[in-house]
Amino acid sequence: MSNQSPVTAILVIDMQNDTVHPDGAYASFGAAEHATSQQVIPHIASILTAARDAKIQVFHSRIVVHPVPGLGGGNAPIFQMLAPDTFKIGSWGAEIVDELVPQPGDVVLDRTRMSLFNGTEIDVMLRNLGVQRLVVVGAWTNMAVEHTVRDAADHGYEVTLVEDATSSLSTEWQAAAVGFALTNIATITDTASVTATFSG
C-alpha cells in the first residue's frame, strides 16, 4: 500500500462531534464509549500523520442536516433519526473533532446520504488523481462506513478497512459489520500495519 503503485487515498468518514464525542448527540447510544474503546481518534490521527508524510491525499466526509426541514428526507429510519436536531450545518455537532481537524491540502466533502459516493464529487476527484486504492476509517462502521466501502468496491476501487480505526454504537454492531457484512468486500487490517506500509 503506497502512494505510487497503486495510488492510494484516505477516506475519513464522519469523525464529528455528534458521532464520537462524549458530549455528542449519540453518546447515550454508546457511540462515544465504543469510539473510546477502539481508540479510534488516536488511531486515525496516526494514520493521517503517516499518510501526509507519504504525500497521500486525505479526504474527510461529514454527514450534515440542512436547517430547512425536509431537505434530508425521511424515507428511512436513519434519516428520521438524524433530523432535525443533530449534525446541523454550522453546529458544533457537525464539526470534525478537534484532534482530527483537517489540515491544508485535505479535502472536506459534506453529504446528506449514508455513502460518500452519493451526492458528492468524490469519484470524479479520485479518478482525476488516478487513485485505485482507498483506505477507509471513521464512524460508524455499520452505517456510513459500510455504505461507503460497498459503493467504493462497486465503483472499482480496491478498499482497505482499518478495523481499529473505525467504530460503531457497540462491539456487537462492529463485529457484525467487520466480521460479516464487509469481510468479502474489503481487506481488513489494523492501524499498525497501515502506518508501517505508508512509512516503508
Automatic annotation (TrEMBL):
One Pfam family cited in the UniProt record for this chain: Isochorismatase
UniProt entry tagged with the keyword Iron: no
Listed SUPFAM superfamilies: Isochorismatase-like hydrolases
Name the UniProt record assigns to this protein: Nicotinamidase-related amidase
Domain Isochorismatase-like: 8-192
InterPro entries, A to Z: Isochorismatase-like_dom (IPR000868), Isochorismatase-like_hydrls (IPR050272), Isochorismatase-like_sf (IPR036380)
Keywords, alphabetical: Hydrolase
